[in-house]
Amino acid sequence: MTDQNIINLRSADPFADVTGSSASDSGATGGAGGQRSSNLIHIRIQQRSGKKTLTTVQGIGEEFDKKRLLRAFKKKFACNGTVVEHQEYGEVIQLQGDQRTNVSQFLKEIGICQAEQLKVHGF
């Protein structure tokens, strides 16, 4: 019972489901792990230090300007953030705090994606 209460203290790879950590997934993806779910937008939360968290948004198409999206996120959610270039996943948006529900609602409202294209991860 106590193990279930402390599950969020384990260190885990937040991108493990995209990369396909098992050997059977690597054959099905055809190489690059990020290409497997190119039509899904992944919204994750990562624990920083103490109770500080970081929200990452990965998988937004190349046709959208991520810096303009970041500017809209920062203004609407009153938080800070940045766009990080990841060697495997491309451009990833990082926001301070737990913004998972805000980001998912915002992306659906402005029409970037449908509800079935969003995958929200976290504890």
UniProtKB/TrEMBL annotation:
Residue span, SUI1 domain: 41-111
GO biological process, one term: regulation of primary metabolic process
Stored InterPro entries: SUI1 (IPR001950), SUI1_dom_sf (IPR036877), SUI1_euk (IPR005874)
Gene3D superfamilies per record: SUI1-like domain (3.30.780.10)
CDD domains named among the record's database cross-references: eIF1_SUI1
Region (Disordered) residue spans: 17-38
Pfam families in the cross-refs: SUI1
Molecular function GO labels: translation initiation factor activity
Sequence similarity: Belongs to the SUI1 family.
Name this protein carries in UniProt: SUI1 domain-containing protein
Native organism: Rotaria sordida
